[in-house]
Fold:
Amino acid sequence: MRRPSLILLALLLLAACGQGRYVEEDEYNDPRRDNMTRGRLFGESGLILFGTNRSPRDEGGGALGVNAFLWRGALDTLSFMPLSSADPFGGVIITDWYSPPEAPDERFKVTAYILGRQLRADGVRVSVFRQVNSRGQWVDVPVTPDMATALEDKILLRARDLRVQSVQTAGR
Structure:
């Protein structure tokens, strides 16, 4: 009884082994390889092995849960504010309160949400909170609607610049 169990275990271990190959450093960020598929057990429309995705790999994904260019663009754009929290897998950046030097009785807090793995204009959302100091108490006040949009635009512009730089660097 023990021998068949050992043989079965050995067969399972061998079945788990696959063909290995060397993966080049920039292989997964190469836009020419976007249509590659990996690890199909039962043909093109069959079972997917070990969580590989059926859709082409999104650009700039890397090891993050969100688009790497949008993530870096958001961090760069908000770098003037103190960082309270950053979750690269959930795509949330929360700053601490920041008072501009020219307006010490006013402070801002920003939350940026990176919404996906693709570099798209609707891939980032920003919420801005504003408070003013009134008689020693911080009071919430409305923010102009274009402030969040302006920050989103700056993040997208920075993400685009980072994407262009990465393509130029890869082309060398």
About this structure: The CA atoms of residues 10 and 16 lie 10 Å apart.
